[in-house]
Amino acid sequence: MGSCKVACLLLITAGLGGVISQSQICVGNVGVHNFPDPVNCNGYIVCVDETSIPMTCNEGLIFDVNILKCNYPDISVCLPNLLVTTTTTQTVPSTTTTGTTASTTTTQAVPSTTTTTTIATAAPSRPIEEPTCPDRGLHFYPHISDCQRYYKCLYGKLYVMSCPLSLLWNQDIKFCDFRWNVACRNN
Asked: pLDDT (tens digit, 9 = 90+) per residue, 158-184?
């Protein structure tokens, strides 16, 4: 398994409103890896070491960030849809005037501004038992109840992954492995 430290950080930045070019995605990459296009759900970038090759999914498919492959849109999450939306509301209190025959006083309150930021995420809300993802790097953890599944943490984002049929997650080698090589206590 290769590391995607720089490229993944750039992709996360892009998903959160930063600007990134396709040529920057593969900076620091070693080996061959697929990365989502930061602006196009149908596109992805194949990094061969530090060389980027833009690709497009077949018609009707999008690049799924959970499995890093093209997949059907109704069961996929694409990077451009992981947007940050910011809503700003400003409250201006009403002006009050009090008066008597001798003088008039006008009081106006200072407007207040409230900013709310909402971040859409790929994973649903998680139970407490699931791992907390570190903000940096790529990390793997065993699933809390299913030995055929595991968690992939990519720069603070938790993804639930599944091993191919008849294989189980082996935390020692951080890879799916044959059942007889895995000490599984959950299945």
From this structure: 998 988 888 899 998 988 888 888 888
Lookup result for tokens 């900013």: 115
Instruction: Quote the longest CA-to-CA distance of the chain.
Output: 95
Q: Which residues contact 41 (CB under 8 A, 6 or more apart)?
A: 62, 63, 73, 78, 79, 80, 81
| Rounded Cα gap, residues 10 and 6, in angstroms | 6
Tokens of 28: 């620091």
DSSP string, 123-164: SPP--TTSPPPPSSSEEEEE-SS-TTEEEEEETTEEEEEEPP
Q: Half-sphere exposure (CA, 13 Å, Cβ side) for 3?
A: 6
State mean pLDDT over 4-29.
52
Is the domain 1-92 a CATH 1.10.10 member? no
| DSSP 8-state secondary structure symbol assigned to residue 166 | T
Q: Provide the sign of the torsion angle of the four alpha carbons 140, 142, 145, 146, taken in this order.
A: positive
The CATH number of 123-187, from 2.40.10, 2.170.140, 2.40.50, 3.30.870, is: 2.170.140
Q: How far is CA 159 from the centre of its chain?
A: 9
Give the position of tokens 């968690």.
151
- Given a cut of 70, whether residue 11 has pLDDT beyond it is no
